[in-house]
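Dear colleague,

Thank you for sharing your sequence with our group. We've completed the structure prediction you requested, and as agreed, I am returning the results in plain text so they can be pasted directly into your records. Please verify that the sequence below matches your submission; if there's any discrepancy, let me know and we will rerun it promptly.
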Amino acid sequence: MTSQQRNKWVPAVAVPVIVGVIALGGGLTATAEADLPDRTAGEVLAMAAGHHDTSFSGTVEASFALGLPQLPTRQGPEQGGPEGANAAGAVPDGLAEAFSLLSGTHEARVFADGADRVRVQVFDGTDERNVVRNGQETWAYDSTEGKATQIIVPEGSDGAGPGMPGGGVGDMTPEGLAEKALAGLDPTTQVTVGEDTRVAGRDAYTLRLDPRTPDTLVEDVTLAVDAATGAPLSVRVRAAGQEDPAINVEYTSYSTETPDAGLFEFAPPEGVEVQTVRPDGGMWPDAHRSGPQGAGGPPAGGDAVLGSGWDAVAVIPAEKVPEDLASSPFLDQYATDTAAGRVLSTPLATVLVADDGRVLAGPVPLERLLDVADAG
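Please find the predicted structure tokens below.
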């Protein structure tokens, strides 16, 4: 495997595992400003599940305290460095930008006209990141890399929208995070309705999810669900043992007016490198697949998800992991050595690059990964 191929593999696995595989949790500060009709947890869940046909626009503030390293910016061949790495050769292509997006505080604009016309636009200074869906076509654009990806989803697919891959952009919207938090609800989760609240000037129900297992890094999940539309207005994340949220994503302004149709048309800027891919042709790495897998049987592609819900562990077999991953400069700098392998940790997820070549990851403590590794 070439250095360029290895560099592209690491962010494809590390970023979705650290951010996308985790269950999300947090706590809202309720106010006395809202006094809504009483609803059961099931009724609020049904409201959230049915919001996808709504049209709206809004401004989102997203704050992340995931403990991700501050990586140096990319320096490729054009700056005299090795292709796909920074000057020190330690940072994989795209990882610095992804970690930067998922650290600190960012502001995003979100526009939606039903489920299949969505735009998420993030600005950090002069940098711009966009994920734009218009029907079966989705564009992901990052000005920091000068690249745009055109994604053609299969006819009838609903797999695009704010949660679509795009360098973490989907994780900066309440919709994207709420979709992940609610997708795998099972008996391991206690769901309750809290006090009514207001977010971005709108009345909302508070929905809280509490794990019923100690083998997770997630303390709880709290969402604000718009009382009129069912749209998630806020998701705040709290890791076990921490008071302050690890992730706090909420609307600061919200309008139910239909956005202008031109917002969902995207043309890459002149000179931008464009790649066209089709998800049904095997676009996404197997590490993107998550969710309950029955009794831990392997999904398509050979990976296994052992358990379900809050303590699920994804296992990538050794034959699908680059042979030189364990000795990569990135891991040398940012991983911790253990008797079982090399470990990357955040408040909400742990990744183990085992000595036998496997990669294990989940929203769980290291002890849980070690137990799975020993049993396998």
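Summary note from our side: The domain at 23-66+102-280 is CATH 2.50.20.10 (outer membrane lipoprotein receptor (LolB), chain A).

Kind regards,
the structure core
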